[in-house]
Amino acid sequence: MDQTIKQELDRIAEKEQIQILYAVESGSRAWGFPSKDSDYDVRFIYTRPKKSYLQLQPTKDVLEYPISGDLDISGWDLDKTLKLLRKNNPALLEWLASPIIYKKNTSFYRELCLLSDKIQQPKGLIYHYLHMAKGNFRDYLKQEQVKSKKYFYVLRPLLACMWIEYYHEKPPVPFEQLLTIPSLSTDFLDAVAQLLIRKKAGEELALEEQIPEIQAFIKEKITYFESYVLTLETLPSISYDELNDFFFKWIE
User: Quick one: signal sequence residues (predicted)?
Assistant: First the structure.
C-alpha cells in the first residue's frame, strides 16, 4: 500500500500542478490502533506555482478527493498551513509528528518543525483535545453497548491533555507512547491493553459492553481538565514576519 500511496501522490501533483513537500499518515494507523478494515488517511502539504498566489481570482487552499477503496487523501496549501500553524493547530502538529511519512522534503520539514517549536499554546491544545473527548464521550460512550474504537477517540485526547500538563510539551502521536505517563494506574493500563487487543483484531464497528475502569477514568479526567484549562494563560504567537519569510522562501 505504501507504493500505491506514493504513486497516487505523484499523480495528484502532476494533475494539480503542485509540489507536495510533505505527506503523512494521520488517524488510527498513525496512532497505532488501526482495525482490520481501517482506511489509510493520507494528508499532505503543497505549494502552487508562484504566480497563482498573485492572481486576482480566488484559489482554493485545500485539495480533497473522494474516498477510493481504502484511501482517504487530502492536502493543505502552504498558505493555509502557515495560518493554522500560527494558531497552533493540533491536526497540523500531529501531521508533523506522524511516525508514518510517505513523502518529505527534508529541509522544508526541518524548518517547519523549528517554526512550530516556537509556538507554545498549551491552553489552546488542551481546549481542543478536551472538546474532542467530551464530544465523543457524549455521542458514543453513554449507551449500554458502545463501539470499541470510540473509547480511543476519547482516551487519546484525554491522555494528550495529561501529557501536556505533565511534560509541558506537545503530545506524541502514537497512542501507546501516551500510556507511559507515570500517574496512570495499573488497573487502567490493563483495561486499555485488553481493549487494544480487541480493537486491532476486530472490525471497525465492533460493539461491546461499557468498561467500568475506563468509564471512571474518562469522567474524572474530563471534570479535572474543565477546571485546569481555565488556569492557563494564552501566550504570544509567532510573528507574521517570520511566517512570511518562510512562505516566500518555499513558493520560489
Answer: none
- DSSP of 72-120: EEEEEEHHHHHHHHHTT-HHHHHHHT-S-EEEE-HHHHHHHHHHHHT--
- Rounded distance between C-alpha atoms, residue 204 and residue 29, angstroms: 13
Would you kindly state where each structural domain of the chain is located, as residue ranges? 2-119+237-251, 122-231
How far is residue 53's CA from residue 48's CA, in Å, rounded to a whole number?
A: 8
DSSP assignment letter at 21: E
User: Cβ atoms within 10 A of the Cβ of 48, count?
Assistant: 18
DSSP, res 171: P
Nearest in space to 188 (alpha carbons), one of 220, 153, 227, 146? 220
The tens digit of pLDDT for each residue in 83-120 reads 999 998 999 999 999 999 999 999 999 999 999 998 88
Q: How far is CA 71 from the centre of its chain?
A: 17
The one-letter code for the residue type at 140 is Y
Three-state DSSP state, 162: helix
